[in-house]
## 1
Amino acid sequence: MKEIALYIHIPFCDHKCIYCDFYSITNYTNESNYLKAISQEINHYGNLNSEDKKVISVFFGGGTPSFMSPEYIGTILNELMRYFHFAYDIEITLETNPGTVDKKKLIQFRNIGINRLSVGIQSFIEEELKFLTRIHDADTARRTIIEAKEAGFDNINLDLIFNLPKQSKENWLYNLDEAMKLPITHISAYSLILEAGTILNKMVLDGKVEMQDEDYDAELYEITIKYLEGKGFRQYEVSNFALPGFECVHNNAYWGSKDYIGFGTSAHSYLNSKRWWNYSSLNLYIEAMNKKGIGVAGSELISMEQQLEEYVMLSLRSSGISLSELEKRFGGEWFNKNEILLNQLVNSNYLRKDAGIVKLTASGYAICDEILKNFD
Ligand code: SF4
C-alpha cells in the first residue's frame, strides 16, 4: 500500500499576528458551514483515492486548530477514518496555541485520538511575545506544555522564532534554555522572515522596525544547531530538531516527496505527479464546494525535471540525497553533472557522504540555499 499524509487547514484565529502570512481569519460565523464543506471534501477524495493508500499522518494546521472544540476536530477525524485506512502507528498532530487550551481540553483532544501537539510558543520573553502580538505570556506557554504532558501527550513539538529585531544572543539562548526545561521531544526553530503583505513588512517599510542583518541571523542559526545537538536534539531538516525517534512523520512525508492530500482553505495536495491548491478564501472555498464539490483554485502537472529538482531540494534540506534512490527514480545524469561540485563541497565540510547518502553538515545547513543554487 502506498503511504499518504493528510493535512486539514483550520483558518480561524483570535487575531492576526504581525508577522503571519498563513491564510487565517478572525470571523467565526462560518464555522459550521466550513465543517460541512471539509466533510464533503473528505468524502470526495476518500471515494476517489483511499483503497490502495495507508494514511501515516494527519496534521491539523492553521490558523489555530486548538481554538476549535474537541468535538469539531473529532468530527473531522471521524470523517477521515470513514474513508481512509489509518496505519496502526499513525501520527495525528494538532497545532496548538497557548491561551486556547486548558488541561481539560487537552485531555479531550488526547481522547479523540490526537497523539502529537505542535505548540506555537515562539518566545519565553514577555517583550518578544508582545512584539510578535501573541495572545499568551511566558507562564501560559510553560503551563501549556506541562499540562499537555500531564494530559498524556508524549510527543510535543515547540516552535520558537529567532532573530527578532534587537534580539541579543543572550536572549535567544535564554529561550533555548527555557525550552529545554520542558518535556518536549521536538523543536522547530525558525528565523523571523519578512513576508510581503504582513503588518510587520509595513512596519519595516515605514521605518518603525529595523530587522537584523543576515550575518547575525546566520550566527544565531549556528548557535542553535550547536546548542540543540549538544542537548541530544538531532537536526533532520533546516529548521527542525528532534530527539531520536521523534522526527515528525508529517514533515518527513513532505520532504520525502510522498503523496499528500490537503483539505480546507489554502491547503495544497500532491498526488501521482499532480499538484493542486484550494482557494485561500473561506467564502470562495465554501462556494466552490457547494457548486462543484471541490475547492480547487488551481493545479499543475509536475514534469520529471521539476520532480528531480524538488527531490534534490527537499532531500538535501532534510535527511540527505540517497544516491541509489536518485538513480532509481531519475537515472544517473544529475549525479554525473554535479559530481565535481559534490566532492568540492564534501572537501570544504559543507556536505558529508555516508553510506551512499549525501547530507548537509552544520555549516552546510547555514548556506543550504546557496548550495542548491549551484547545482546543475
Ligand atoms: S496564531 Fe498563527 S496562524 Fe494565527 S495569525 Fe498568529 S501566526 Fe498566524
Note: The two ends are 34 Å apart (CA to CA).
## 2
Amino acid sequence: MDFQLSEEQQLIQQAARDFALKEVEPKAAELDRKHEFSHELFKRMADLGFTGTCFPEEYGGSGGDDISKALIVEELAKRCASTAATLSITQITPYGILKFGTEAQKKKFLPPLLSGGNLAAFALTEPQAGSDAAAARTTALADGDHFVLNGNKCFITGGAIAKTTLVFALTEPEKGLRGMSAILVEKGTPGFSAGKVEDKLGLCGSETVELFFKDCRVPKDHLLGAPGKGFPMAMELLDFARIGVAAQGLGIAERALEESVTYLNNRVQFGKPIGAQQGLSWYAAEMKVRIEALRGLVYKAAWLKSAKLPFSLDAAVAKYYGAETACFCADTALQIHGGYGYMKDMPIERLFRDSRLLKIYEGTSEVHKLVIARGVLGLK
Ligand SMILES: Cc1cc2nc3c(=O)[nH]c(=O)nc-3n(C[C@H](O)[C@H](O)[C@H](O)COP(=O)(O)OP(=O)(O)OC[C@H]3O[C@@H](n4cnc5c(N)ncnc54)[C@H](O)[C@@H]3O)c2cc1C
C-alpha cells in the first residue's frame, strides 16, 4: 500500500492548483454573480489537457489516470465549484463513448470533446423521471436509417452549449426499461432545442437547461452500445460520475477549512482570536477529520477504477460522504465567519450555496444510501 502520489500525479496536481488559483479564482465570484459559464476557461482547460485526462492520446486525450482527474476536479472545486462541476459532468459522455462506442464513433466524437474545447452533455433526467430514471418517456423510434426522437429532458448541465449530447430514450417503448437505448445527438440537429438557462441557488457559473426533441432525426449509427442496454449503461456511467462529485466535495470542504483557519486565527473577539475559544477550534478539528476521511474515499475509488477493479460501491460511498462533508464544512465555515460569512463579499456564502447541490445531483443522498445498502447487503 502506498499513500504517496506518483511524480506524474503530483505534477498534474500542481498544474491544476496553479491554474485554479491564477486563472479561475479571479473570475469565480463574477461568474457566479452573473450566472455565466466561461467558454474561455473551458478552452484553457482543454489546452492544458484537463478535459482529456484519463483518456487515451489516440482519441485526443492527455493520458493520466483517474486519480489525476480527481486531483484536477478537487483543485478546481477549491476555487470555483461551478468550473469543477462542468468539467466533471462533461466527461461522462466521452467516458461512455470510450467504453461503449465503436471505433468510428470514438474517432468522430472524442477528439473535439477531449482536446477541442467542446462540451458534452449527459441527458438522463426528465421532469417525471429524476431518482426514478426508469420512468423516462422520451422515445427514439426507428424509421429507416434514423431514430426519431420525441420528448424532453430537464436539468441538463451544459445542454444548450454541448457539441454532443448523450440522450437516453426508449427505442422500444413496449419493453419499458429493457427498451431504453443511448443515442448521441449533435448540436444543431433539426428538432433538437434547449430552453432558458435555469436560475439556480448555487453552481451559478455552470449552465443547466431543459432539452426538447420534436421529430428529431438522428442517424442510426449514433446509437451508443447495444440497443435496449441504455439503462445499465447509464448506471455504469453514473458510477464514474460519482467519483467526480466526491472530488468536488473534497475541494469545497478543503476551501471551507482553509478560509476558516485564516478567520479563526485573525478574527478577534473578547480580546483574543476566536480560534482560541475551544468550541470554535473544535469546528476546525471536525472539518479536518472529515476531509481526510473523504480524501481516502475519493482517491481509493479513483484508484480502484484505474486498476480496473470493481469500484461501483466505493464510488457511491465516496459520493455520499463527499456531499455530506462539503455541506457540513461549508455550513460550519459560515458559522465560524458569523455575519461576515453571510455577506457576498466573502467566498463562504458561495461555498455554502454550491455545496448544497452535491446532495442532489448524480443521485440524491437518499438514493445513495439505497445503493450503498444494496451493495452492503449483497442485493441486486
Ligand atoms: C443543477 C443540476 C444539474 C443537473 N445536471 C444533470 C445532468 O447533467 N444530466 C442529468 O441527466 N441530470 C442532471 N440533474 C438531475 C439530477 O440528477 C436530479 O435532480 C436528481 O437525480 C434527483 O431527481 P429529482 O430532482 O427529480 O428529485 P426526485 O427524484 O423527485 O426526489 C425528491 C426527493 O425524494 C427523494 N426520493 C426519491 N425517491 C426515493 C426513494 N426511493 N427512497 C428515498 N428517497 C427518495 C429524493 O432523495 C429527494 O429527496 C441535475 C440537477 C440539478 C439540480
Note: DSSP finds eleven helices and ten strands in the chain.
## 3
Amino acid sequence: MHLYIAYKNYSSWSLRPWLALKVAGITFDETLLPFAHSDGLDKLAAQYDIPAQVPVLVDEEHVIWDSLAIMEYVAESYPDSHLWPQDKWLRALARSAAAEMHSGFMSLRSECPMNCRSQKSKVVTPEIQADLDRLQVIWEHFAAMDKPEGDFLCGQFSIVDAMYAPVMWRISGYGLEVSADFDKWIAAMKNLPAMQEWLAAAQQEEWVMEGYEAMGD
Ligand SMILES: N[C@@H](CCC(=O)N[C@@H](CS)C(=O)NCC(=O)O)C(=O)O
C-alpha cells in the first residue's frame, strides 16, 4: 500500500490518512510530492487519471484519491484496527462530524491554514468565531455519548480524530480557543507518537509556501 502526500508542514489533507494509518499500526510506503516545487503530483494524476491533489492511496492496481475515502478503505481493509468505534450510534456521530469537517469550517480552513511549525496570533473574526463555536458544540455532542475511556472524541482514537487533526494545529498555532474539553483533546493528539513523528518531519522540511506563511496577524 502506497500513500502519496504533500508537505508535512502545510498539507492538512495529507495528515489525516497518514495519521490514521500510523496510529492503527498499518505498514505502508509513503512518497511526498511537493506540488508547488515539483511536477510529481501532476505526473501521478496523469498516470491514474485523477485530480492533481493529495492524498492518494495506491493499493495493488487500485487508486483511491480522497482523504475520507482512503480512511474508509483502510478501516474496511483492516477491521481489527477499529478505526471507527464499535457502537453504531457513536460511529454515526463520528461519521457525521467527519463529513462536516470534510465539507465545512471554511473560515478556519481558509484564514488559518495548517502550519505545524509556526506559532502566530490571529484576530478572531465573526466567521472564525462561528467555526470555533461549532467545534465546541461538536465536542459537546461527543461528551454526551456513552463511550470507552480515553481523551479522543470516541474515547479511543478513530477516523474522526484524524479528520480534525489539522484543526488541532490551527487552534494551537494561531492562539485560538474552543473549550476545556477541546484542550484535553489537543493534549491527547499532541501526545500521539505518530503526531510527534509528523511534527518532527514538518520541522525538518525546507519548502516554504509564502501564501501560507503570510497568514496570521
Ligand atoms: N478532497 C480532497 C482535498 C484534497 C486537497 O485539497 N489537497 C490539497 C493539499 S492539502 C492539494 O492537493 N492541493 C494541490 C494543489 O493545490 O495544487 C481530499 O479530501 O482528499
Note: The beta strands are 2-5, 29-32, 56-59, 62-64.
## 4
Amino acid sequence: MDKEYIPFTKEMKKTHTILVPNMLPTHFKLVMKVLSGYGYKSELLESSGPEITELGLKYVHNDTCYPALLVIGQFLDAIINRGYDPHKVALILFQTGGGCRASNYISLLRKALKKAGYGYVPVIPLAFNALEKHPGFTLSPSVIYKMIYAVVFGDIIANLKNQCKPYEIYKGDTDNLVEMYTTKITGAIQRDKLFFSKSKRYFKEIADAFAKIPMDKTQSRVKVGVVGEIYVKYSPLGNNNLEHFLQKEGAEVVCPGIIDFFLYCIYANISDYKLYKMKKKLYIPMKIAYKAFKGMQRQLIEAIRSAQIFDVPPTFEHIKKLAEEYISTGAQMGEGWLLPAEMLELSERGVNNIICTQPFGCLPNHIFGKGMMKPLKDKNPHISIVAIDYDPGATRVNQENRIKLMLTNATLQKPKKDEESDSNYITTEQKEMANL
Ligand code: SF4
C-alpha cells in the first residue's frame, strides 16, 4: 500500500468520471452498469493506437511487463490526448496481486502519473485485499457480490457469443443478443433484491435465447483455443484484437472463462495452507468463497448443457485434476498451473489448435506457457500450440501471419471424419457425469 495516495472522496463521486481499462469488454460493461446503479460515473477506455505504447514506454521503465505498460499508457493517453479533464477523472485498476509484478501496478501507475504531471489524479485499486481507504468508493458486500455475478454473466454471454457468431445466418443476430442481455441482466441485478435466487433462471434464459439464433453449423470452422497471461488473453488492446481477427479468418474462438481464474486465485490460498500450512486465517473464508464460486460455475455449466446444442465448458475441479498429472498446484505465479491445465482441457474437448498469448517481460507465463509446451506435447502429440509474443516491438503482421499459418495447417490436416466427430466429442468429465 502506498503511504501517500490521493483518496477518491465523497465529493468526487459527484464530479469525477472513473476511467476503466478495457480488459474484458463484455464483462466490464456489465460491471460498470452495476456500478452506475450506485451513482458512479464510469467510462470504459476502448482506445488503441501506437500513442498508447509510446506513452507507456515514456513513463514506465521499458523492462516492465507489457500489460502494465499498456494499461498505464492507455490511462495517460486518455488524459493527455482524448480530452478528459484530468481534474475530473479518477482511475481504477483491478488487482489480482500475487508474487509477480501484478502487485506493483498501482505504484507504477501513480509513479507514471506523477512523472507526467498528474500526480493529483486519484487511483482506486480494486482488489479483494485492498487496504486503502477511498471514502467515495466504498463497496458493500452486496455490491461486491453483484459485481461478481455480473462478471459470471459476462462469462456465459462471451462463451455463447463465441459459439454462435461464426455460424449465424443473419449477420448481427449474436451481437444484438449480447447487447440485449447486457442491459437486461444488469437491470435485473440492480433492481431485484432477490436476484441471487433467480440467477439460475437467468442463466437458462440466456442459453436458450442464444440457442434460438438461426445458425448454419454445416460450415467448417477451425476451433482455436486462446490461453495465456490474463490481460493479453482477453484484452483487445493487449492482443491486437485477436478474437476479431480469428473470427474474420473463419475460426471459432474457444476462450476459457474468467471464473476459472477467480477460482484459481481463491484456490491458491487454500492450496498454500494445504501444502505449506501458510495463510491459516484465510483458509475457512477462502473455502466458503470457493464453494460459492463453484456454485455459480455449476449454474452456468448446467444452463449451457441444457440448451443441448453447445459445447459445455468444464468445471474448475476437472481442470485442476487434468493439471495434477503435470504440475503442482503450488505453482501459482502469474497464471501458474492454470495455464497448462487450460491447454489440456481444450485438447480434451477436441480443440487442438491453441494460441498461447505471451506478453513481454512476463517470466511466470513464459515458464507455465512456453515452458510447459514440451511436456504437454510429449504426452499429447496431437496438440498444436503456437506461442505468440506481444510486446511493443512485435509487429501485428508477424503475429497474424503465424496465426494464419496455424489455421492453414489445421485446415489441411483436419480430415473429414474428424470434423464430423468434433461435434460429438465427449470429455472424460462428461463421461463421468453420464455414468452417475
Ligand atoms: S503475470 Fe506476467 S504480465 Fe501479468 S503482471 Fe505478472 S509478470 Fe506481469
Note: Residues 65, 67, 100-102, 229, 334, 359, 362, 364-365 surround iron/sulfur cluster (CB under 6 Å).
